[in-house]
Design a protein that fits this description.
This protein is 60% helix and 0% strand. The protein has nine helices and no strands. The protein is mainly alpha-helical. The N and C termini lie far apart (47 Å). The C terminus is likely disordered. Helix 4 packs antiparallel against helix 5, helix 4 packs across helix 8 and helix 6 runs antiparallel to helix 7. It has one domain: Hypothetical protein af1432 (Orthogonal Bundle).
Length: 202
């Protein structure tokens, strides 16, 4: 690609961007991609937003401290947390890494992409050690960010469990509801959220 072609491509993309509605231009590219991907691959895309709000309470004033960028990545992980549900439960962790770490995400660097992938992976496997080629991604994160990925994964697991318990309670106590189910199918194979040590929360 020569300089003239590159220049033309930049002008073209700029014109297309300018034609978008203001609300669309102001969307976070990473969150927008995760929302769209969730619609395509998750069982109930609204659950991702509910997990964002639920984990916001955990990471509030009295919870683990986080920067604006860390909050953004946590929200991305919540939105992508169910994209590998079609895989066998034993392989949902590694399937999550395949789908997320190698996806064409925008608005995020490589460590950020790996963080989201690992957080969703740990949502499925707990804090177990990764095996095989996927384990080579872990060193892209600092030790603190590796612990944080485990913590965010555990928070998502707890949120999913609380959501399913709430849904089951509602179903058992009512014969009909205009609101519909919270989730379209409970995950009987999702184990309980692992205990998180103080070291992981720091």
């Amino acid at each position: 690609m020569n300089a003239a072609t590159l220049h033309f491509a930049q002008v073209r993309e700029g014109l297309l961007f300018a034609l978008l509605p203001k609300s669309e231009r102001e969307r976070d590219p990473l969150i927008a991609h995760c929302e769209d991907y969730s619609v395509l691959r998750s069982r109930s895309p609204t659950n991702g937003h509910e997990l964002c709000a639920w984990t916001d309470m955990l990471f509030g004033a009295n919870g683990p401290k986080e920067t604006a960028e860390q909050r953004r990545l946590r929200h991305a992980a919540c939105l992508m947390s169910d994209v590998s549900w079609r895989a066998h439960p034993d392989y949902r962790g590694e399937q999550s890494i395949d789908l997320i770490a190698r996806a064409s995400l925008a608005g995020v660097d490589h460590p950020g992409r790996v963080f989201v992938a690992l957080a969703v992976c740990y949502r499925h496997i707990g804090d177990g050690k990764l095996q095989g080629p996927d384990s080579k991604l872990v060193p892209l994160l600092s030790s603190a960010e590796q612990k944080r990925a485990i913590l965010v994964g555990a928070a998502i697991r707890a949120g999913v469990g609380a959501h399913q318990l709430s849904s089951s309670t509602i179903s058992a106590s009512t014969t009909s509801s205009s609101l519909g189910p919270v989730v379209d199918a409970p995950d009987a194979d999702v184990p309980a959220a692992p205990a998180v040590s103080r070291a992981a929360a720091s």
